[in-house]
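INTERNAL AUDIT FORM
Audit reference: QA-55
Scope: verify that the stored structure record matches its stored sequence.
Auditor: D.O.
Record contents follow.
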Amino acid sequence: MAELKAHLSFWKQRLGVVPDEVWLRTDLQTLILADNDLTEISERVGDLVKLRMLDLGHNRLCELPISLGRLEGLCDFLYLHDNRLTQLPNSLGGLQRLRYLNISENAFGSFPDVVTTMRGLIELRVTDNHLTELPPSISHLTSLRELHLRNNQLATLPDSIRAMHELRQIDLRGNPLTSLPESLIALPRLEKLDLRWVTTLEPPRWFSQLEANGCIIYS
């Protein structure tokens, strides 16, 4: 265990269960519980209202406490990757200041709708899941700069993506894409479209326009 002021790390301690005294540390700004074989997180996590960063990655979580949505100060990072999640609680819509969310390497069969309400997101990672489509409401994430969707089951993207004017990077590696919306041309800041390991997509003619706009297409 390493502790410094308002930062607490139990990284890779194989705890199994979070010690009760952790939930008393209401001064914490950073809490790292990654790689601890955790199967549940106490609702008391909602008492840590000063948290700016929370790392719950590399555990065995199947669900999250509703009280996570009370952490309105969570603004830096929320790591939930490499768990067994199939859904997220709607209460996470309260995390309006959160800038980075990683829900990769879980068991999502559909895109969690609540994510589209987290308007402060700048980077979103949903790689290595089982997504077959993105909801049109993904366009509500108008501050998003990076969208990472590697190794899902996506055949296309919604046309509404045209509204995401801050997007710089879209990672679609390893998806069975059959088409992409021409509205990608409307993204003024798009710098990188990653299509490596995609064998099902015939590059459309408008790709040349996308490249002329300054976007690099990796294929």
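Auditor finding: record pair retrieved intact. The helical segments are 207-212.
Action required: none
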